[in-house]
Amino acid sequence: GGVVSVGTLTTVIDEMVSDMVKKILTTIIVILLLICLAMSEGMILISSKEKYNERVKINRGVFPGYLLRILVFSIFVAYNMSSTFLPVFLIRRSVDVGGMSKELLASLPITINIFTIGLMSLVTTKMVNKLGIKKLCIISGCFSFTGNILIFLIPVYPTIFVGLLLDGVGVGLLSNAAYILITYIKDEESRTECYSIYNGACLAGINF
Fold first, then answer.
1. What count of other Cβ atoms lies within 10 Å of the Cβ of residue 116?
2. Exposed (0-12), middle (13-18) or buried (19+): which is 10, by Cβ within 10 Å?
3. Which one, 51, 61, 123, 175, has the greatest CB density within 10 A?
């Protein structure tokens, strides 16, 4: 009996150690990937800034595309971070209500967030014309910041729902305003380059 108990205990300990090693290795791999992505993004920004500094000496109308990349990259990194962990978190916090499954309830705030982002594309142009891009960026940034603060400080279903709604308004306005900004660039070469920068920054931010 004693031998069996010792053997069982050894097996349990081995499994625990194995799980710990797997978690540590996974964490290390994720951290290394994030470092690589951050370094890659940093190198791209440095290269873009150097390119801008060279071109602005010849043409004063060149747009600082590296600033656009920072803005767009930051928007989608922040959005990606919340949308990555929230579905799992919501499923754990949701319960079956009124015949609706917790999976459906958990997906509802995320769906509203995505729908709101899309809806903002219909009104951004009018708001840019009325407020200007600078004011609109500040207002939309406040919406997104408030939404994320709500989610972080009060992580319960109702506040997460409201937080994602506010975040959807902010991200939708900000991302569309940044795209509209490109259309205002007079220098054709800069405008074409900024469209490429916008798309690249979107993908980089989503994958970060």
1. 19
2. exposed
3. 175
Residue 121 class from Cβ within 10 Å (0-12 exposed, 13-18 middle, 19+ buried)?
Answer: middle
User: Which residues, 6+ apart, have CB-to-CB distance to 158 below 8 Å?
Assistant: none
Half-sphere exposure of 113 (CA within 13 A, CB side): 24
Q: Which of 191, 194, 207, 168 is nearest to 71 (CA)?
A: 194
Which tokens go with 97? 């209500």
Bridge partners, 97 (sequence order):
100
How far apart CA 113 and CA 109 sit, in angstroms, is 6
pLDDT in tens, 84-137: 677 667 766 655 555 567 777 777 888 888 899 999 989 999 999 899 888 998
pTM: 0.73
Map residue 123 onto helix, strand or coil: coil
Please give the DSSP secondary-structure letter assigned to residue 38.
H
